Amino acid sequence: MIRLVLNVLWLIFGGGLVLAIGYGIAALICFVLVVTIPFGVASLRLAVYSLWPFGRTLVTKPSAGVASGAANIIWVVVAGWWLALGHIIAGVGLCLSIIGIPFGIANFKLVPAAFWPLGREVVDQP
Q: Which of 17, 63, 105, 113 has the greatest number of C-beta atoms within 10 Å?
């Protein structure tokens, strides 16, 4: 029950909707440019994860291979480092108040996803 409350508050006040829309727009742009479709899929994964982060976690896919690692390097150079930095800055800012600490932690959970998204999947926590 607490995860539902945190997710609804995150969606409204924590920036979850804004993050999901931003990642969704990035995914659409990646889908239009056919070569970047794998990055679009990763961006959609980030949109869904940033929309409802509490009670979910990111795990490595066992089937991820060398291609996803190489694509992740391109992702880090092009977009991953500034996305991760943005989540870190937002997390620190939210942790300055007691009420914002859960939302700051949610931003910190999004850092590895934003930095290295390919070859990972979002799963529910037990």
A: 113
What is the distance between the alpha carbons of residues 21 and 11, in angstroms, rounded to a whole number?
11
Please provide residue 123's backbone torsions phi and psi, each rounded to the nearest 5 degrees: -130, 155
CA distance 115 to 5: 27
Tell me the whole-structure pTM to 2 decimals.
0.80
Digit-coded pLDDT (tens) for 83-97: 889 889 989 998 999
**Mean pLDDT of the region 36-52:** 89
In the three-class reduction of DSSP (H, G, I as helix; E, B as strand; rest coil), residue 62 is classed as: coil
CA-CA distance, 117 to 83, in Å (whole number)?
A: 11
The torsion region of residue 58 among left (phi > 0), alpha (psi -120 to 50) and beta comes to beta
pLDDT at 31 over 90: yes
Question: Reduced to 3 states, what is the DSSP secondary structure of residue 64?
Answer: coil
What angle in degrees, to the nearest 10, is found between the helix axes of 16-32 and 2-12? 70
* Span 61-72, pLDDT tens digits: 877 788 888 888
User: Do residues 115 and 84 lie in contact, with contact meaning Cβ atoms separated by under 8 Å?
Assistant: yes
